[in-house]
Amino acid sequence: MKYEVVITSKNSKTNEDNRAPIGVYYKNNKILVAHLYEGSHTYENLKNEDYFIINICSPYLIAESVLNDEGNYGHLEYNDCLIPYLKDSYKIYLAKINNRKIIESKNDYGNSKLMIVESTIILEKDLKYPPFKPYNRAVGLIVEMAVLYSRLNIVNDEKRKKIKEEMENYFKIIKKVGSEKYINLGKKFLE
To answer: How many whole angstroms separate alpha carbon 67 and alpha carbon 6?
Structure first.
């Protein structure tokens, strides 16, 4: 099963913090695996850095993280490194990269280099308890809109049109069942 998280990392050249929503999964129940596409900040950062943080956070924060690297960052000191994390996360995991494998990937969105990162969790920390509230359909749809938004610049015009139509359909439901916060984020994805 894939889990949607926000990975935070540091650019060793510019010292800038980076956040990115990424799907991760476990291999053999102990090795964490992430697939990163060339061209992203996270790809470049994790090519050079051995540590990153997995932020378990709200679906809203996952979706918002696709737009930019602005965030409420804290920094965890470990092994002479300062690794950024999102203070608004419920829980964080410090991951150490064990293996990187770069392959050529071909999928519906085209050809690109894909880095498969295998890591071990070496530290975990609870930051705050997630709120317990009834499920709202806008929560899942905003994450799906974010995933689609992240693909808009890597597809041809025909696929882009289909993706935008799908996003507009999700947004219609968000407008019907979501709060103003979710509606405003959905509007940003459609701009």
So the answer is: 12
Rounded distance between C-alpha atoms, residue 1 and residue 115, angstroms: 19
DSSP per position, 81-146: EEEEEETT-SEEEEEEEEEEEEEEEEETTEEEEEEEEEEEEEEEEE--PPP-----HHHHHHHHHH
Query: Is the separation of the CB atoms in 45 and 69 below 8 Å?
Result: no
Q: Give me Rg for the CA atoms of the chain.
A: 17
Q: State pLDDT tens for residues 101-124.
A: 999 888 776 678 899 999 999 999
Q: What is the pLDDT of residues 136-163, one digit of tens each?
A: 999 999 999 999 999 888 888 899 999 9
The stretches in the chain having pLDDT less than 70 are 109-110
> How far, in Å, CA of 119 to CA of 134, rounded?
34
Contact call for residues 88 and 132 (beta carbons, < 8 A): no
Q: How far apart, in whole angstroms, are the C-alpha atoms of residue 189 and residue 148?
A: 9
Q: Answer for the pair 62, 144: CB distance below 8 angstroms, yes or no.
A: no
Angle between helices 157-177 and 180-190 (to 10 degrees): 170
The secondary element (H helix, E strand) that includes residue 35 is: strand 31-37
**pLDDT for the residue numbered 109:** 66
CB 173 within 8 A of CB 141: yes
